[in-house]
């Protein structure tokens, strides 16, 4: 008997029936990391709160936490934070977000830095931010219409999003300050 390798190919119809937290990438199911540690959640709240302050009055855009982004029938991602504009779909994010923020954990770092990076770049997400909780650092990438260009590493600087439908910025000093005091 030959040794056959077989991998299931799942679709969005399969995905919506699953219990627990999953992502679907090119038909392959990936279990999400267990519940994030408190630091991860706190950083998520701090960034979301700042973004929400700017987008609260913007009728075209909204800040979403852990919402499904359906790229295709066999690829569904769940970014930690997404800012979407002019997306009328009520079930999931149906178009490229303006901003995606992923807060890395050891179990998701490779997927966030490579696989999701490539997918978000291909989909032309305007800004991709990778947050490194252990380093108290964020890497900001901006899409130039062709690919992501690194804007820089941010530790305590303010980053202003200059070409969004509504003005916004993130003060990384405020995001990381609590953890610097405890070092």
From TrEMBL:
Alphabetical list of CDD domains matching this protein: DUF820-like
Keyword annotations of the record: Endonuclease, Hydrolase, Nuclease
DNA repair keyword on record: no
Protein's UniProt keywords contain Metal-binding: no
Domain of life: Bacteria
GO molecular function, one term: endonuclease activity
UniProt domain Putative restriction endonuclease: residue ranges: 13-145
Protein name, UniProt field: Putative restriction endonuclease
Species this protein is from: Hydrogenimonas thermophila
